């Protein structure tokens, strides 16, 4: 007796359904496991980003504390001592001691107070450059170049092509980067005769350049500068560069001077 066709087809149908269920289950397992792996990767990436932001914040805080300590030393060593000297001279004037020349004492007191006023102005400019708030980044950098000329014997050159201004917070960050780079050059570029500061915009790229013809040094890495583990000043530069979304490139060699460029996309800066 021949079995009906639907009876012989039933095992094939059940097998096909079972195979489809198995394939569907494998697909669901793959999707779930992939999503879990992707979620774990996202968590790891967020942890890395959070740690990076914490490192940037720590670098900025360290730089601020170091700046406060330096300003405190300047106020104590320069301003406070000058004011104390002026006070002593005025007290000598008040005693009417015939052994002293009042005109000479008065002139000396005025000279000491003038030096104290100059120190206060220099310190306040370092705290926040008034020219930056009033007339913008170019004038502030010109003022920085002028101060560098007065404090050192090397020739300081400044050039700028800056037709489109950055937001104020970005300008302040770029100014602080330049300030620290100039300070490093004046302190460490032994034998230098020229220091060049440049701010140039070409299309959407803005480049801040600080270059000297001093002693140079052996870089740890070629190309993009790696500032991890460096001093507080360089860590603050690195932190501000990253906050700007910029790229820092430093080229140097013994006896060949040092060239440091900060390159940023003008349109991408939003602070």
TrEMBL record:
Subcellular location as annotated: Cytoplasm
Location of the Histidine kinase domain: 70-268
Superkingdom, taxonomy of origin: Bacteria
InterPro entries membership: HATPase_C_sf, HATPase_dom, His_kinase_dom, Sensor_HK_TwoCompSys, Sig_transdc_His_kin-like_C, Sig_transdc_His_kin_sub3_dim/P
Family annotation (PROSITE patterns): HIS_KIN
Organism: Hymenobacter glaciei
PANTHER family per record: NITRATE/NITRITE SENSOR PROTEIN NARX-RELATED, NITRATE_NITRITE SENSOR PROTEIN NARQ
Coiled-coil features, chain-numbered ranges: none
Membrane-crossing segments per the record: 12-32
SMART domains on file: HATPase_c
Catalytic activity annotation: ATP + protein L-histidine = ADP + protein N-phospho-L-histidine
Keywords, in A-Z order: 4Fe-4S, ATP-binding, Cytoplasm, Iron, Iron-sulfur, Kinase, Membrane, Metal-binding, Nucleotide-binding, Phosphoprotein, Transferase, Transmembrane, Transmembrane helix, Two-component regulatory system
Protein name (database record): Oxygen sensor histidine kinase NreB
Pfam families named in the record: HATPase_c, HisKA_3
Cofactor: [4Fe-4S] cluster
Main localization of the protein described in the UniProt heading: cytoplasm
EC number(s) stated in the UniProt entry for this protein: 2.7.13.3
Main function: Member of the two-component regulatory system NreB/NreC involved in the control of dissimilatory nitrate/nitrite reduction in response to oxygen. NreB functions as a direct oxygen sensor histidine kinase which is autophosphorylated, in the absence of oxygen, probably at the conserved histidine residue, and transfers its phosphate group probably to a conserved aspartate residue of NreC. NreB/NreC activates the expression of the nitrate (narGHJI) and nitrite (nir) reductase operons, as well as the putative nitrate transporter gene narT.
């Amino acid at each position: 007796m021949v079995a009906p066709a639907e009876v012989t087809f039933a095992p094939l149908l059940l097998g096909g359904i079972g195979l489809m269920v198995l394939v569907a289950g494998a697909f669901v397992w793959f999707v779930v496991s992939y999503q879990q792996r992707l979620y774990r990767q996202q968590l790891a990436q967020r942890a890395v980003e959070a740690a990076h932001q914490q490192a940037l914040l720590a670098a900025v805080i360290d730089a601020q504390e170091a700046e406060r300590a330096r300003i405190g030393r300047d106020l104590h060593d320069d301003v406070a001592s000058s004011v104390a000297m002026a006070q002593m001279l005025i007290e000598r004037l008040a005693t009417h001691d015939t052994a002293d020349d009042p005109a000479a004492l008065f002139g000396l007191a005025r000279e000491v107070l003038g030096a104290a006023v100059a120190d206060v102005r220099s310190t306040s400019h370092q705290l926040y450059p008034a020219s930056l708030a009033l007339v913008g980044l170019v004038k502030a950098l010109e003022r920085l170049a002028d101060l560098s000329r007065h404090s050192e014997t090397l020739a300081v050159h400044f050039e700028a092509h800056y037709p489109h201004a950055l937001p104020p917070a970005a300008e302040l960050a770029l100014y602080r980067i330049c300030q620290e780079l100039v300070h490093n050059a004046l302190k460490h570029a032994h034998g230098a005769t020229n220091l060049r500061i440049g701010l140039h915009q070409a299309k959407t790229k803005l480049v801040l350049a600080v270059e000297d013809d001093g002693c140079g040094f052996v870089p740890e890495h070629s190309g993009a500068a790696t500032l991890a583990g460096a001093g507080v000043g360089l860590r603050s530069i690195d932190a501000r560069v990253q906050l700007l979304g910029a790229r820092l490139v430093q080229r140097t060699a013994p006896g060949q001077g040092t060239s440091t460029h900060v390159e940023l996309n003008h349109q991408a800066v939003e602070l």
